[in-house]
Structures are given as structure tokens and as C-alpha cells.
């Protein structure tokens, strides 16, 4: 079955908090309370779809990158060759190259990366892209998560202007890359002509032509590249959107009315500035006194050079092209000499909630290895744990939160009439962004009454509203707001409103106001709201508002200075050794260059606007300290970001800690004036001291980390006084530092030890003081208790030096050590059994160890470890399912007398790794087939309510329509109870039983979804679908509340068993607060049988115990009613089995010869009877007798002649087997194997040919076998006659006179006979010359000298088998 997320919305539309449940059955008591849940609206927003259809992916290739080659000592030429090989390899693996107008069904290459990591970014159908992984040249394939984009007063506030004045440093010579929507290089702030006409010429028809000469300042705009093209937007939703980029050499930004983000960012970072006269500032920045009336203020590093790396289309949207831009930043001219890499890269973009081990972060870290510092925005998703995401959570990136400066640029509303004339004039506000008209609106402001918000049609007020400006009520809480601004404006437009005005009580605008295209409108600031609302309510106020008032109010407000913008994202909480953001900088109501206007400005807010301030400071630092590494620059900026960022206007209220603002708000002057840096010794690139999540068991935990304090300056020794300044606490846990004083000489370093001590007796789960315990939805927020603050390195008293900060973060938590015992039902009649839990429970400091008991329904093997270069190992592990269980509260409720449909089915899920935050990047999914037709009817997704709220629900949707049906809290608990939302691997997802059919057993499918799934399908892992009846389960539990799906581990829990469940289980027990891997436990469930009746078994053996004969074995079992089988054994060897019938079992067996011990063993087939075994019965079985006969072919034979005897062995009852032997005088002279036919065995035995001449007496002996006795034949006489020998002299007939020749004498027998032995006597002239013993039938003899003639004879003596013989030869001398 294809798996897809059909209804998991990025933001659920919610009503009020409610209790979900069915109508109770009749009963006297109150019905059980439902689990805490949110009330779903009827429809959800856009569905989060799985990776089906067109995707963008990175294909890592098995080849070294150019940087790899250089790091190994290679030359630029070697690097170029390596890059060419990567290009060729990419073309082989993905032959098709993408183009905006190409049409192919195959995956297409968007780009090839060869500088930092070898690979290709491709696009195509998900299934086809996945197939690329089959190539041997491909290391792996992973999806590319899409990224989205996330001043004049700020230069003074951050003291950048003081740097220009004090140091004369403006960033000259520093090269900065802006990875964004492009840059309008024709704008006056970048030294361009500064006219709309110049922009139109440079942009041309679609922004894709070459960069025109003469329309840019070559000292400011150094170049760049458009990786995206005009219409690129893989998320869709913009005009002519396409997922296929169309790169071109012109990185010009789209007009600010549809894009312009990159131009605004670049102006903040490095614009020259535009004077009040609309001209590019070309003067001395050190002499600037006042920036307040400038059209566009200078960037922080106004004379740094800019590269525009455009990764978005001209209409905004999302992008998957950041990898290509980072690659380009490593080697802008493409010559593989990385010395031209950019100094600073700004990335005001990101993916919310992406993990710290997002593989794209590898590119940022590799850039840092080259010497490039990447500055990133923290994101604009507010105060939700871990929402900051990538690339801000890269270890080497410098990530920036959005704080507020004391001077901001707002749009304005002009009061043209008021009872209090002091109110006349401009008041700060923000215009709606959707209005497309050019006309302002003017008129009285109509107040319709308290609570009239425009979410319903305003028809009843049509006469009051028509032609006037209507005031509508506004709810600042995103989670509880009844409708957005678009609905309100549309209803106002429908009744003829000239304009719409709303207010706020928030001191800072966290987001813009959309409105609609037809009616202008604005939102007043909180101060303006408080000032003007009384006159609005009195009906005495008239205003003028509209597009002409854009950026019209430049205000100073000390009360909001250094207050955090509430939209600024909270970052990672230390799970993977990273806490971000790193610093804060002004990002609210920032005025900067407006693309396409020539010299104009517009105002934007967000961390996107904060990041370029810090990128500019980093450029100033690189200019002053060109030898500093990215890590040193990052540390220098963080260490001097010592301005506290507050939670409330005033500024007042608690100070934000590292998880929201890092070290604090940046200070350019202190950063450049400081030559001492401090950083975590084991994580220089991170700077912050991150203890991470610390499990605290029975004993006090003490952990230590060291901070290196390094004096990079040459102005003398520096004395510092270390201390810890907390921003949040966890009870009695402490952070201490030592020593209390250090002195660091120039060019040297010292270390400070930071010690975390967490005593379980005093540890308390506290929420950070800047956070609201309420989620904004009327339910408690989920949170991680953290001990945070700053390691402060103070200068000695009286010194004018600034202190230094190093953020410190630890998240200690109490952990339990609880284990359950296997469950035993004492008998089939027992339907309940206790669940025994033992060990160390936790119930203090705000932590309570919880337990959930489920039936184990499925398991899944562990997935292979994921490659960190290709995907997020933490997310793959968090989706690696190991166990799935199910439980139901329905039987408890039914037993209490209520309708079981009031209950829940709980699906328990255990994964291999820990999620940092449940329900964000990797989500568990449960598909439920309710009606049994094989297709899902419901889908339950464990997710956040939306990406800005720390509330995790098990959201159940109608699979086909996407309608939200239920939103109970995961684990059945809100955030005031610590469950398993953070840093855990077990959960229980509740599904209301009222959504199921009691008459149909549902089927559940459990799987995990993540964009980081290595498969590319979005599916990380899955278990086989299983059936489970929550209305009649085999096992269920009681203890705790009727609808509790988790209970405290100290609860007395009873396991209940259905009467028909004779072999139930096993159980899956989840221990929420144990340390991993002890959170999931599988228990056996045993149902003991009834008390069995004893039996006895006796054995009788009938028949003659002889080999070959059958014995009858009879077993008698009493009582005779016992049923089962009897196994007959000989010792431990099974002979036969037979059923017991009427108390008797019989079997016929044949036994071999020898002693046997027979036993009959009764095995009952019912638990009503006990097994029994007979007394052993000994049986001896005699061997079968045998007779042996010997027959020879004749009585006489000749020596050496082949003679074969026949031996016959006959068994009396059993066949003989084995060998027979031929004996003479007690010795074996020959053997042979018997060939058996029936009871007779026959062997042909060859007599030895070397039997000596004479009479021999033979007997045949059968030595016996396992079953047949030995026997011997009668003796037989055989006479061997000697053989005639042949003697032959081999000698020459003539020899020289008086020579002594050598002769050879051979003695021969018949063919095949033994070689003759004995001696040969040689004579010459009838005189004996020599007597020689034969060797192999031959002898050699040297004759005496022969004068004339010699007669030579050779006489053979004969031996035991051969007769004597003679030969004569004559030799003549000459």
C-alpha cells in the first residue's frame, strides 16, 4: 500500500480547548473524563504530502571533491581534474540536464557540486530519483529540504557607526556573499545609477539577460550568479512557478513589491547608504554625525564588496539551491584555487525545525574549513523548542536572533482630526501588504463596539462603515485568533469601507498584516493604540492612511530597545551538542534598500534583517584581523555580545538566555576593540558550552567542560575574573567556574573550568522565566527545563574593558530505573494478574515516572546507520521503529458501566534513536482501516499543533477529506506533565474509540515520515499492518483513571485477560522516564494450566529376544481414562510411538543383538493428566548363529599361479556382514568382503601367489558382526608344486684379448609369478669365478682375463618356489 501523509497540516485550525467523548451509557456515576484534547475545526490547512511526485534531491557521488584533493596536497590543476571527473561522473549517473523548457521523464541535473562535496542536485519524480541509488557510483541520495527567506538607526545602536569613527574601518577589501533573492545592483545604496529606469534596463524582460555594463559599481557589486531564474519556486504558489531552475549570469533581485528580500539584506550588511538628497554616499564614514534623515542608512560594513548569489525566483517562495550557492562561494572564479573563497556569507533563510545534523550544514562547516564564516538568521517561528532549524543550527554558523533597536522605521497613520489636537500628525503603524492600490484613504474612524472583529460579515453595520475607516478588534494571540486579517478586510470591503484600522497590545510587531488588495489599512503600534483608542471609541478621530505613508515614521523608543521580537525563533536545546541562536541583533522595523526603486527604502522585520547586521560586523572584524579564522571571528562577536535582551518593554522583565539570544545583543565597537576570545575547548566552532541533556539518576551528577581563553592581541597581558550569571534555573542544580581569576599573556591561552552539578534531591523542572507556561491555546506549554546563563569574564574593577560572554546551557532531568516482571495468571480460571513493577521510581521536582502497558503487535529490525553526509542520522534513528503496541481503555469504561466508545485506543511506538522534539521533522503516523475494506479511513499523525506552539497532539484526520476529527494530547498529558515529547524514543498516541466501529475489528498500520528518509519516499520505517480489537482485546489493564493511557509507575496495575485468551501476549511496557535503552520492555504472559491427575505407566515385553525377531511392547497407563501418546525408548533412543487407547499402547519392534533397557514414557495431550514413565525393562538379544564353508578350485597348484578360494557364510536368523579371513597356521593370509544375499554371504578370496612349494592347510574364519556370531570352516589342504626356472647369461660373444668382461645372469619365472630369489654360481673354464645373490632376479659377475676362449656357465640354486637351472655361454678373445 502506498503510504502518504494526507492530512498532517503545518498549522491546524483550532477552536477552544474541549473534552472529546461519546454519550455515556446508563449508570449512576459520572462518566469518565476524556483525555485532554483540542477542539478541531472542520477543515485543515494545506496537507503536508510525502515525497511523492516531483522532488529535489542531492546525489552524493563516489569521487573526491576538489577540496578533498587540495587538502591531500594536490595542486589547483589536480583539483580541476578531480572536478572534471565529478562532472563526467554526474553526467553518467544523471544524463539529462535540467532546463526550464526541457521535457523529459528522467531525473534531471540541476547542478553539479565538485568543490566541497562531490555530487549533483537533481530534480525529478521521487520514484525515479530513488532509482539513482542503485548505481555503484552513487554513495547515497537524500531529499533537499526547501528553505524560505526568514537600518539606518541600527548602525548607531549596534555601534557600527562608532567603529567607522574610531577605527576608520568600513570593510574595504572584504568580500561578502549574499545568498538570497538577488541584489538590485542598480540601487543607489550599492553605487548604481539609482533610478527606476536603470533597474528596468538591468532587469530587462525577465531578469535573465547579462549584467549590463555601466549600471553597477564595480567596487561594490563584485559579481555573482542567478542559480534560480525568474519563476523558480519548488513550493509553488507564485506566478508560473516551476521546480526546475533556469540559471543565468544576472543575479538581479525582483522588484520589492514581489521580492526584494536580498536587496534589503545586502543594503543592511554592506550598502553605501543613500543621503537625504537621494545620492550614493561617497564621503568619509568617520565624519557622519546623524543618519536619521537618510533615505537609506549605510550598511554595517559600507565599503565591503558584495557577491549576489540568487537562489530564489523573482517572486519569492522557497528554494532548494543553497548547496549550489555554497559551492560557488568556495571558488567564485572556478579555477580550483580556493584562496579566492568569500570571506563572509550571509544566509537570511532557513528551514524551520530542521535538525542540527541536517546534511546541508556540512557545506557550511566545510566552508568554515576554507576560511569562510557563514552568518545565518535564526528564523521567525517564535518561542517553540527547536524550531530554529537549518542552517542556523550548523556548528560553525553564526546564527542571529531578532531583537529591537531604540530607533525603528514604521509606516504611519496620520491623524487629521481629533478632539485632542496634540494627537494630530504621524503615528507609527504597519501598512497591509496585500493592498495593490496607490490611493490613500481618509475619513472618520468608526468604532462598532467591543469585540467586533470583522470575522463575520459586517452587513449589520453597513451604513456606519460605508465610506469611512472602520476600527476592528484584533487578538494578538496567533493560536486563539478567530480569523486572519484577510477575512476582516474582505468583510470590510464588502460593506464599502474606505479603510481598515486595527491595533495591538504587543510592544513589537511579530509579523506583518496581509489585508486585501482592494482596501488600504494599517495596524497601529501598541503605544499608538493606547494613545488613539480612546478617541476612536469616542468617535472623534479622523485619519489618513495608505501607501504614501510607507516608511514615513522614523521613531526613537528607548522602552523597546533590546527587547526580543517575539517572532524570533528559539533554537536547538543541546540534544546534538548545539544551542542556538548565537547572538541577537536588531531585526525589527529595519529600513533598507527597496529593489527597483532607484534610491528608495522599505521596512521589513525578521531575523532575516538581523543577520546582515552581524554579517557586516564580521566583515569589519575580518578587515581589522585578516588572519583570524572563522571560529575566532565568531567567538569575538559572541564574546562581546554582552547587551542583555529583555522579555518585556521598558526594557524590563526576565533576561533571555542562550536558547533564544545566545550570548546577547551584538556590539560592533566592543567586537573590534577586543583581542581576547573565549570558547569551549572541545567545540571551538560552537563557542558555547553545551552540556546537553543530562540524565540524573540516584546519584549526584558532576560534569566538567573547559573554556579556552585566548589572547590574540599584542597589547599586553589581560586579567579576567570568571563567574557564572544564570538566566534560568533547575532547582538546586548549579554551574560553577574556576579559577576565580586568570591572566592571559599575549599570544597565549588559559582555561576556565565550568562545572555542572545536579543533585537529584534538589533538581526541579522549572520553565525559563521568559516563557509563558500557557501555550496560548489555554493548555500548558511543553518545555525543556534548562539551567542556562553566561560564563562572564569580567575585567578587573576600574578597567574600561568590556566583559566577555560565553553562553552555557545544560538540561538536567531526573530519570527512573523501573522494570516490570513477566505476568502469570495462576490458572485458566484466573482473569486478573498483578503487574509487578520494581526499581527506582521518580516523583519529585516536577518529574514523575510513567508507565504504559500495551499488547505487543509488531516489531521491526534496526535500520542501517545513516550517513551524516547524506541525511540526518538523528532523524533516521528517530523514525527507526523497533516495537509497536496497542492498548484500550474501552474495557475499563465498560466494566464501570459506561459506553466503551468513551474510551481510547492507544498505539504505543518505540523507535531506535531519540527525537529531540517529538512531532516536528520526523513524525509517527498511524493509518486505520475502520471498515475492513483494506484501505485506511483514518490517519493519526503525532505532530505539533503548529510550528510555533509547543503542544504535541495525536491528530486524527479523515483519510480522504482531511477533516480533523480529534486532537488529544500525545500520551494523554499536556506539557505541565513531563512525558516523552523531548529527548525520548517512546510514545502512546490516543485515538478516540467513537471513531471506530465496534462491530468491525480495525487494522492499524504504523510508519514514520520524514523528509530525511534515506529512501526518498518520506517513509523512514514501517511495521506490518496488524488487527486489534479495542472493544474486546485479549489483555487490558486497570489502575489509575478510566481513560489513562499512561499512569505513574507507582500505580498498582492489574492486567486483565479475556476469558477466551488462553495464550495471550506478549506485553509491551513503556517506561517513559527510564534511560534509553531501558524504556521499552517485552514481557511474557503465562496462563498456568489446571492441577493435573497423576498417572502410572508399566511396560511388558513379549516375544523371543533374538536377532531378526519382533518383540511386542505393551504399555499400560492408569487411570485408563488418560489420553495421550506413549513413546517407547531403548535408553535415550526412540523406538516407536503409539496412542493410548483405553489405557493401553502397543508397538512391535525389532532389536539388535546385545543388552537393551526399554522404557515406556506417557505424554498427555491434556493438562488434566501428568506425564509418567515406566520402570526400565532389561532385554538381552542373542546373536544369530552362522556356518562358514571354504572351497578351492583344486588340490594342487603351481608356484606363482593365481588361485581363488570361495568362502560362504550362512546366518541362522540374520544376515552376516563384514569380512571373512583365510587362515594358515593361525595367521591371516587373505581377507575379502562378504556379498550378502538373504541370509547368505559369499566372498571370493585370492590366495597369495608367493605361497612356497609344498602342502598348505587353510581354514576360513568369519569373525562375526553386530547381530551374527563368528564361525570357522573345515580345513582344506592345498599343494603348491615348485615352478621351473629359466637361467639366461647375457655376455658378449667376442672380447679383446686379455680383457675381463662383465656378464649379467637373469633368472626368470612365469609371468605374474614372484621374482626368483637365491644364488647363482658362475664358472669359467670349469673354474668357479663367483657365487652371487640375485637382486630382482639378476646378478652381475666380472670374469677373469680371457686369452683365447672361455666357456662360461651360470648355475641357479633354486628357492622355495623355483627349481634349480643352468645356462652356458662361449666367449672368444681376439
List keywords for this structure.
single chain, 1374 residues, mainly beta, 9-stranded antiparallel beta sheet, 7-stranded parallel beta sheet, 18 helices, 11% helix, elongated
Describe this structure in words.
- With 1374 residues, this protein is mainly β.
- The strands form 20 sheets. Strands 1, 2, 47, 48, 49, 50, 52, 53 and 54 form a nine-stranded antiparallel sheet that branches.
- A hairpin with an 8-residue loop joins β58 (1067-1071) and β59 (1080-1083).
Low-confidence runs of at least 5 consecutive residues = 7-28, 41-51, 147-152
In what range is the share of β-strand residues? 35-45%
Rg for CA atoms: 49 Å
Give the structural class: mainly beta
Number of helices: 18
Tell me, rounded to a whole number, the average pLDDT.
89
User: What is the helix content?
Assistant: 10-25%
Distance between the termini: 114 Å
**Total strands:** 86
> What summary fits the major beta sheet?
9 strands, antiparallel
Q: What does the overall shape look like?
A: elongated
Brief overview, please?
By secondary structure, the chain is mainly beta. It is built from 18 helices and 86 strands. It is 11% helix and 36% strand.
Indicate the topology.
Blueprint lengths: L13 E6 L16 E5 L13 E8 L4 H6 L4 H18 L2 E2 L10 E6 L5 E7 H6 L6 E6 L4 E2 L4 H4 L2 H8 L7 E6 L15 H8 L17 E6 L34 H10 L34 E6 L11 H9 L13 E4 L1 E2 L10 H10 L2 E5 L20 E6 L3 E11 L7 E7 L9 E7 L14 H4 L3 E3 L13 H10 L4 E4 L18 E4 L1 H13 L3 E4 L7 E4 L26 E4 L3 E4 L7 E4 L2 H18 L5 H10 L6 E3 L3 E4 L2 H4 L6 H6 L2 E5 L8 E8 L4 E11 L6 E11 L5 E5 L3 E3 L4 E10 L28 E8 L9 E11 L2 E4 L2 E3 L6 E4 L1 E4 L2 E2 L2 E2 L1 E10 L13 H6 L2 E8 L1 H6 L8 E14 L4 E8 L8 E7 L7 E7 L5 E5 L13 E11 L10 E8 L8 E4 L3 E2 L7 E4 L8 E2 L4 E5 L9 E5 L8 E4 L1 E3 L8 E7 L7 E9 ...
Parallel strand pairs: 4-5, 9-11, 9-12, 10-11, 12-14, 14-15, 15-24, 18-19, 19-20, 20-21, 30-37, 39-60, 70-78, 80-86
Antiparallel strand pairs: 1-2, 2-50, 3-6, 3-7, 5-6, 8-13, 16-17, 16-22, 16-23, 17-21, 18-22, 25-26, 27-28, 29-31, 31-35, 32-34, 32-36, 33-35, 36-37, 38-41, 40-57, 42-43, 44-45, 44-56, 44-58, 45-46, 46-51, 47-48, 47-52, 48-49, 49-50, 52-53, 52-54, 55-57, 58-59, 61-62, 62-65, 63-64, 63-66, 66-67, ...
Helix pairs in contact: 7-13, 8-9, 13-14
Amino acid at each position: 500500500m502506498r503510504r502518504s501523509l494526507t492530512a498532517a497540516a503545518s498549522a491546524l485550525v483550532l477552536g477552544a480547548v474541549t473534552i472529546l467523548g461519546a454519550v455515556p451509557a446508563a449508570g449512576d456515576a459520572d462518566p469518565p473524563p476524556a483525555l485532554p484534547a483540542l477542539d478541531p475545526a472542520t477543515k485543515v490547512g494545506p496537507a503536508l504530502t510525502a515525497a511523492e511526485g516531483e522532488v529535489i534531491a542531492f546525489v552524493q557521488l563516489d569521487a573526491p571533491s576538489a577540496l578533498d584533493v587540495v587538502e591531500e596536497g594536490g595542486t589547483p590543476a589536480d583539483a580541476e581534474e578531480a572536478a572534471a571527473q565529478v562532472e563526467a561522473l554526474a553526467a553518467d549517473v544523471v544524463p539529462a540536464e535540467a532546463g526550464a523548457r526541457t521535457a523529459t521523464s528522467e531525473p534531471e541535473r540541476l547542478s553539479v557540486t565538485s568543490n566541497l562535496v562531490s555530487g549533483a542536485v537533481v530534480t525529478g519524480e521521487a520514484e525515479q530519483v530513488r532509482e539513482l541509488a542503485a548505481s555503484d557510483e552513487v554513495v547515497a541520495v537524500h531529499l533537499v529540504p526547501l528553505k524560505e527567506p526568514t537600518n539606518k538607526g541600527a548602525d548607531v545602536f549596534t555601534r557600527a557607526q562608532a567603529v567607522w569613527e574610531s577605527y576608520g574601518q568600513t570593510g574595504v577589501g572584504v568580500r561578502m556573499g549574499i545568498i538570497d533573492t538577488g541584489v538590485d545592483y542598480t540601487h543607489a545604496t550599492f553605487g548604481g545609477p539609482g533610478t527606476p529606469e536603470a533597474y528596468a534596463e538591468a532587469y530587462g524582460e525577465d531578469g535573465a539577460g547579462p549584467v549590463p555594463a555601466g549600471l553597477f559599481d564595480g567596487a561594490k557589486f563584485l559579481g555573482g550568479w542567478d542559480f534560480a531564474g525568474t519563476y523558480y519556486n519548488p513550493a509553488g504558489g507564485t506566478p508560473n512557478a516551476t521546480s526546475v531552475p533556469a540559471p543565468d549570469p544576472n543575479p538581479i533581485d525582483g522588484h520589492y513589491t514581489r521580492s526584494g528580500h536580498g536587496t534589503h539584506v545586502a543594503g543592511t550588511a554592506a550598502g553605501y547608504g543613500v543621503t537625504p538628497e537621494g545620492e550614493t554616499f561617497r564621503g568619509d564614514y568617520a565624519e557622519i554625525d546623524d543618519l536619521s534623515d537618510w533615505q537609506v542608512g549605510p550598511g554595517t560594513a559600507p565599503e565591503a564588496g558584495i557577491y549576489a548569489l540568487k537562489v530564489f525566483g523573482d517572486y519569492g517562495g522557497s528554494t532548494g539551491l543553497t548547496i549550489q550557492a555554497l559551492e560557488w562561494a568556495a571558488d567564485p572564479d572556478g579555477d580550483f584555487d580556493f584562496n579566492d573563497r568569500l570571506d563572509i556569507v550571509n544566509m537570511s533563510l532557513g528551514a524551520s525545525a530542521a535538525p542540527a545534523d541536517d546534511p546541508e550544514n556540512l557545506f557550511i562547516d566545510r566552508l568554515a574549513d576554507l576560511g569562510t564564516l557563514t552568518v545565518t538568521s535564526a528564523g521567525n517561528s517564535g518561542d517553540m523548542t527547536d524550531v530554529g532549524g537549518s542552517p542556523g543550527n550548523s556548528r560553525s554558523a553564526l546564527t542571529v536572533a531578532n531583537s529591537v533597536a531604540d530607533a525603528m522605521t514604521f509606516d504611519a497613520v496620520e491623524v487629521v482630526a481629533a478632539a485632542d489636537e496634540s494627537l494630530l500628525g504621524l503615528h507609527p503603524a504597519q501598512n497591509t501588504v496585500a493592498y495593490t492600490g496607490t490611493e490613500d484613504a481618509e475619513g472618520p474612524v468608526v468604532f462598532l463596539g467591543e469585540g467586533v472583529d470583522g470575522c463575520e460579515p459586517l452587513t449589520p453595520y453597513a451604513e456606519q462603515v460605508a465610506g469611512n475607516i472602520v476600527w476592528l478588534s484584533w487578538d494578538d494571540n496567533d493560536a486563539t485568533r478567530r480569523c486572519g486579517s484577510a477575512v476582516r478586510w474582505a468583510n470590510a470591503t464588502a460593506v464599502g469601507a474606505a479603510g481598515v484600522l486595527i491595533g495591538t497590545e504587543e510592544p513589537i510587531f511579530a509579523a506583518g498584516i496581509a489585508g486585501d488588495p482592494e482596501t488600504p489599512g494599517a495596524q497601529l503600534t501598541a503605544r499608538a493604540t493606547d494613545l488613539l483608542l480612546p478617541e476612536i471609541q469616542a468617535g472623534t478621530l479622523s485619519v489618513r492612511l495608505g501607501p504614501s505613508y510607507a516608511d514615513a515614521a522614523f521613531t526613537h523608543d528607548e522602552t523597546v530597545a533590546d527587547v526580543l521580537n517575539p517572532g524570533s525563533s528559539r533554537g536547538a536545546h543541546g540534544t546534538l551538542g548545539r544551542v542556538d541562536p548565537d547572538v541577537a541583533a536588531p531585526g525589527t522595523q529595519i529600513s533598507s534598500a527597496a529593489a527597483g526603486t532607484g534610491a528608495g527604502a522599505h521596512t521589513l522585520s525578521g531575523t532575516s534583517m538581523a543577520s546582515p547586521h552581524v554579517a557586516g560586523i564580521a566583515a569589519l572584524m575580518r578587515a581589522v584581523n585578516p588572519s583570524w579564522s572563522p571560529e575566532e571571528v565568531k567567538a569575538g562577536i559572541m564574546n562581546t555580545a554582552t547587551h542583555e535582551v529583555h522579555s518585556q518593554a521598558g526594557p524590563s522583565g526576565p533576561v533571555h538566555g542562550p536558547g533564544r539570544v545566545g550570548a546577547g545583543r551584538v556590539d560592533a565597537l566592543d567586537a573590534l576593540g577586543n583581542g581576547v576570545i573565549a570558547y569551549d575547548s572541545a567545540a571551538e566552532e560552537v563557542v558555547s558550552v553545551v552540556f546537553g541533556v543530562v540524565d540524573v539518576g540516584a546519584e549526584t551528577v558532576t560534569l566538567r567542560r573547559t573554556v579556552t581563553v585566548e589572547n590574540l592581541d599584542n597589547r599586553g597581558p589581560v586579567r579576567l575574573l570568571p563567574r557564572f550569571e544564570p538566566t534560568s534555573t533547575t532547582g538546586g542544580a548549579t554551574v560553577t567556574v574556576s579559577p576565580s581569576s586568570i591572566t592571559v599573556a599575549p599570544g597565549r591561552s588559559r582555561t576556565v573550568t565550568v562545572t555542572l552539578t545536579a543533585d537529584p534531591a534538589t533538581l526541579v523542572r522549572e520553565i525559563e522565566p521568559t516563557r509563558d507556561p500557557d501555550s496560548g491555546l489555554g493548555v500548558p506549554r511543553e518545555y525543556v527545563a534548562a539551567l542556562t546563563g553566561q560564563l562572564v569574564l569580567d575585567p578587573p574593577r576600574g578597567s574600561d574593558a568590556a566583559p566577555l560572554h560565553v553562553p552555557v546551557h545544560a538540561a538536567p532531568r531526573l530519570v527512573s530505573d523501573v522494570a516490570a516482571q513477566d505476568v502469570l495468571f495462576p490458572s485458566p480460571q484466573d482473569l486478573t494478574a498483578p503487574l509487578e513493577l520494581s526499581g527506582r521510581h521518580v516523583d519529585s521536582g516536577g518529574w514523575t515516572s510513567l508507565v504504559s502497558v500495551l499488547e505487543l503487535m509488531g516489531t521491526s529490525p534496526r535500520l542501517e546507520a545513516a550517513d551524516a553526509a547524506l541525511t540526518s542520522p538523528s532523524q533516521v534513528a528517530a523514525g527507526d521503529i523497533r516495537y509497536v503496541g496497542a492498548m484500550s481503555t474501552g474495557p475499563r469504561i465498560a466494566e464501570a458501566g459506561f459506553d466503551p466508545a468513551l474510551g481510547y485506543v492507544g498505539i504505543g511506538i518505540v523507535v531506535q534513536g531519540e527525537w529531540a522534539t517529538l512531532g516536528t521533522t520526523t513524525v509517527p503516523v498511524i493509518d486505520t482501516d475502520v471498515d475492513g475494506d483494506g484501505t485506511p479511513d483514518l490517519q493519526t499523525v503525532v505532530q505539533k499543533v503548529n510550528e510555533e506552539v509547543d503542544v504535541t497532539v495525536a491528530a486524527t484526520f479523515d483519510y480522504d477529506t482531511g477533516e480533523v476529527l480529534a486532537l488529544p494530547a500525545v500520551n494523554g498529558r499536556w506539557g505541565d506533565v513531563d512525558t516523552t515529547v523531548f529527548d525520548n524514543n517512546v510514545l502512546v498516541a490516543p485515538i478516540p474509540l467513537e471513531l471506530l466501529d465496534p462491530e468491525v475489528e480495525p487494522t492499524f498500520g504504523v510508519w514514520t515520515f520524514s523528509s530525511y528518509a534515506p529512501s526518498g519516499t518520506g517513509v523512514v520505517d514501517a511495521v506490518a499492518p496488524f488487527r486489534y480489537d479495542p472493544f474486546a482485546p485479549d489483555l487490558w489493564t486497570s489502575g489509575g483513571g478510566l481513560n489513562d493511557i499512561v499512569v505513574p509507575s507507582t500505580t498498582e496495575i492489574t492486567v486483565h485477560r479475556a476469558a477466551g485468551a488462553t495464550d495471550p501476549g506478549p506485553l509491551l511496557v513503556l517506561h517513559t522516564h527510564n534511560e534509553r535503552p531501558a524504556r521499552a520492555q517485552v514481557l511474557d504472559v503465562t496462563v498456568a494450566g489446571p492441577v493435573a491427575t497423576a498417572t502410572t505407566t508399566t511396560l511388558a515385553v513379549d516375544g523371543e529376544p533374538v536377532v531378526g525377531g519382533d518383540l511386542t511392547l505393551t504399555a499400560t497407563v492408569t487411570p485408563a481414562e488418560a489420553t495421550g501418546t506413549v513413546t517407547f525408548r531403548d535408553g535415550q533412543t526412540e523406538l516407536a510411538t503409539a496412542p493410548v487407547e483405553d489405557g493401553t499402547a502397543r508397538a512391535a519392534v525389532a532389536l539388535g543383538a546385545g543388552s537393551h533397557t526399554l522404557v515406556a514414557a506417557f505424554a498427555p495431550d491434556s493438562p488434566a493428566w501428568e506425564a509418567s514413565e515406566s520402570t526400565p525393562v532389561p532385554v538381552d538379544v542373542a546373536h544369530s548363529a552362522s556356518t562358514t564353508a571354504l572351497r578351492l578350485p583344486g588340490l594342487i597348484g603351481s608356484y606363482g599361479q593365481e588361485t581363488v578360494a570361495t568362502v560362504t557364510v550362512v546366518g541362522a536368523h540374520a544376515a552376516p556382514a563384514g569380512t571373512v579371513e583365510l587362515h594358515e597356521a593361525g595367521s591371516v593370509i587373505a581377507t575379502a568382503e562378504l556379498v550378502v544375499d538373504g541370509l547368505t554371504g559369499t566372498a571370493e578370496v585370492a590366495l597369495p601367489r608367493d605361497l612356497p612349494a609344498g602342502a598348505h592347510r587353510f581354514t576360513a574364519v568369519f569373525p562375526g558382526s553386530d547381530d551374527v556370531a563368528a564361525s570357522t570352516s573345515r580345513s582344506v589342504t592345498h599343494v603348491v608344486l615348485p615352478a621351473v626356472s629359466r637361467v639366461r647369461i647375457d655376455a658378449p660373444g667376442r672380447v679383446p684379448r686379455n680383457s675381463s668382461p662383465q656378464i649379467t645372469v637373469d633368472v626368470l619365472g612365469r609371468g605374474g609369478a614372484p621374482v626368483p630369489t637365491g644364488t647363482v654360481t658362475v664358472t669359467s673354464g670349469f673354474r668357479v669365478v663367483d657365487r652371487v645373490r640375485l637382486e630382482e632376479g639378476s646378478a652381475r659377475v666380472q670374469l677373469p682375463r680371457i686369452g683365447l676362449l672361455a666357456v662360461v656357465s651360470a648355475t641357479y640354486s633354486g628357492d622355495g618356489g623355483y627349481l634349480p637351472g643352468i645356462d652356458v655361454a662361449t666367449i672368444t678373445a681376439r
